[in-house]
């Protein structure tokens, strides 16, 4: 019985520590969104979390360490998001549906985690986060290129790279507008962003998406 209790105590301490870390990261996310990373302080984060600065320092030595931990967790979740959003597209899927589904996933992530945009696009983010974001950006571009190559198999690699950069650039520009609004106006900007991407890709993709096979005639038609 005593041995069992001795094993249980470290697990309880670990669970309490994990809950405290989650509490501090949530508070930091709120402060970073409100003031930006540069103006944020550990005192403000502790105050937002409802703990003393001394308690915060038990888990993080400074605000950079907090930002790095928060950024790492968000980027891990972001990788999962774009893995789902940029999965291979069934050729019978209309372009509007394919673009809409991808945009909705990315927008939902950024609306659920507005601190991601605040951290990744701030002027003075920690170097580690900048490096991780650059790696994430490169991987995201590669995934977009891979998706485009399946839709545009005869397109030269340089053109695919350019198109991928344009898609990502258009999305980022629209994302800033989306996050700057709320309610029905935010929804309207999301729809505008989808329209922009669809109108850009439509002439390039043509009838490759939205095809259904006519088993009787053996021909492809568009929806």
Q: What would you note in describing this structure?
A:
- The protein is mainly alpha-helical.
- Helix content is 74%, strand content 4%.
- It has nine helices and two strands, in the order H-H-H-H-H-H-H-H-H-E-E.
- It has helices at residues 2-35, 42-49, 53-57, 63-85, 95-112, 114-120, 127-151, 157-179, 183-205, and strands at residues 211-214, 219-222.
- Strands 1-2 form a two-stranded antiparallel ribbon.
- A hairpin with a 4-residue loop joins strand 1 (211-214) and strand 2 (219-222).
- Helix 4 (63-85) packs antiparallel against helix 5.
- It is elongated, with a radius of gyration of 22 Å.
- 22% of the residues are buried.
- Residues 213-223 have low confidence and may be disordered.
List keywords for this structure.
223 residues; mainly alpha; 9 helices; elongated; disordered C terminus
Counted by DSSP, the helix tally is 9
**What summary fits the major beta sheet?**
2 strands, antiparallel
Mean pLDDT over the full residue set: 84
Strand percentage lies at under 5%
Offer a concise description of the structure:
With 223 residues, this protein is mostly helical. The protein has helices spanning 2-35, 42-49, 53-57, 63-85, 95-112, 114-120, 127-151, 157-179, 183-205; strands spanning 211-214, 219-222. Helix 5 packs antiparallel against helix 9 (183-205) and helix 8 runs antiparallel to helix 9.
């Amino acid at each position: 019985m005593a041995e069992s209790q001795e094993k249980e105590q470290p697990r309880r301490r670990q669970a309490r520590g994990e809950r405290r870390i989650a509490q501090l990261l949530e508070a930091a996310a709120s402060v970073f969104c409100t003031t930006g990373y540069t103006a944020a302080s550990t005192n403000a984060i502790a105050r937002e979390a409802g703990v003393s600065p001394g308690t915060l320092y038990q888990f993080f030595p400074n605000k950079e360490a907090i930002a790095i931990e928060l950024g790492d967790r968000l980027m891990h979740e972001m990788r999962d998001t774009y893995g789902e959003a940029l999965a291979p597209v069934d050729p019978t899927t209309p372009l509007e549906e394919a673009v809409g589904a991808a945009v909705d996933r990315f927008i939902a992530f950024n609306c659920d985690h507005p601190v991601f945009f605040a951290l990744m696009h701030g002027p003075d983010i920690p170097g580690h986060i900048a490096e991780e974001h650059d790696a994430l950006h490169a991987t995201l571009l590669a995934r977009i290129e891979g998706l485009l190559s399946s839709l545009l198999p005869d397109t030269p690699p340089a053109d695919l790279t350019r198109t991928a950069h344009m898609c990502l650039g258009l999305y980022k520009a629209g994302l800033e507008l989306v996050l700057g609004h709320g309610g029905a106006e935010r929804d309207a900007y999301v729809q505008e962003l989808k329209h922009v991407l669809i109108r850009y890709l439509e002439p390039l993709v043509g009838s490759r998406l939205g095809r259904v096979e006519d088993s009787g005639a053996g021909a492809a038609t568009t929806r």
